[in-house]
Amino acid sequence: MTNLVILSYGSRNEYRRAVFAVLSFFSYYEADEPLPPVRVLLFTDRTDYFSQYLGHLPVEYVILTPEQQTEMMGTVGYRHRIKAVVVGDVLRQHPTNNLLFFDSDTFFTRHPGPLLASIKPGFSVMHTVEFTFEDNAHMALPGSKTVRDFITALEAHPFHTSRGEERFVGTQQCWNSGVLGLAPSVIPYLPDVYQLIDYLYAASHWHIIEQIAFSLILQTRDTILPAEDYVYHYWEGSKKMAADALLAHTFDHGFVSLPAPAQRAKVQQLVAQLPTAIPAYLAEHREIGLKEHAINSFNAGQYAAGYRAALGYLMKCPNDRKFWRDVLYHTKKKFK
Question: Which top-rank group of organisms is this from (predicted)?
């Protein structure tokens, strides 16, 4: 048995992405094929939205309350820590089952059977290599810091892990964790992952610390295999906005009333179209890129670039009240 784990809470867009991610998997993986059994463990703050789309599939729901989410974020208050805790809880609760976690902003582009088969003791799966830390040493981080500051903090601190005293270095790789394929053999490593998350997030407030922690631990214990040939991951904010519009067009207009073969055909059509439809949509809606550039610039402390992009966006979308509040928040932060 492989547990397919997905985490989806907070908004209709988020739920819709998760529905598509699960349906894309099962558009290839038929229950009557001679394949290892799978089940979906869907962690969410509500189930009613999902049941109308996924009721025919082996899905078990795990409710996440706001209180549970806060607890999972730990003393550092790091939102993406929830993912690491969910993954660890599932592995410990099902110690004979492999796990394949995929972010809601992913979808499968080919049959996942070989990917599932590659998960075994000594071999873990992540989405793809993004960079080595040294190669991005001058990249800006929150609080006027850079990746160079992160490397300094990383290399200066000896970690007491399951392997004894351990040090990590800036020449190691950061993998994207949009996909995590783990065998039960990684259970002893989980406290190491949590330790790195808590220390490194407190030291840097880098929003990708969760995937950094998994990357550092897994590459020093296992061989990491890439999932990029099986999964498309549209993690960037602008791509998410484009995908949300395209997914809404499919799932909010009579999808649930279609017979199963027609639903499957719709999903496969989306799988084929989205890799080119997303950039085409962004080319037609350049304001999305301006908004993302503004937010990224503010987060990196690059206020001049942020204000230029914000002005360009607000000239096109002056009624976006949430974005006005975001600009005001960053302005107050700048002049504190």
Answer: Bacteria
287-308: pLDDT as tens digits = 998 998 898 888 777 889 999 9
Beta-strand (E) ranges in 47-105?
Answer: 59-63, 98-102
Residues 6+ apart with CB under 8 A from 279: 242
Please enumerate in sequence order all residues whose Cβ is within 8 A of that of 283, keeping only pairs 6 or more positions apart, or say none: none
Spatial contact of 205 and 143, defined as CB atoms under 8 Å apart? yes
Mean pLDDT, rounded, for 251-269? 93
Q: Is the full-model pTM beyond 0.90?
A: yes
Q: Would you state the structure tokens that stand for residue 137, as one six-digit string?
A: 């040493």
The domains located in the chain, with CATH, are 2-232 (3.90.550.10), 286-334 (no CATH)
| Contact by Cβ (8 Å): 44, 38 | no
Q: Which of 224, 255, 238, 179 is nearest to 7 (CA)?
A: 179
The secondary structure of 15-79 as a DSSP string is HHHHHHHHHHHHTT--TTSSS--EEEEEEES-SHHHHHHHTTS-EEEEE--HHHHHHHTTTTT-T
Q: Which residue, chain included where needed, has tokens 């810091």?
A: 145
Q: Of 192, 186, 299, 284, whose CA–CA distance to 238 is shortest?
A: 284
Query: Strand 106-108 to strand 231-233: parallel, antiparallel, or no bridges (unpaired)?
Result: antiparallel
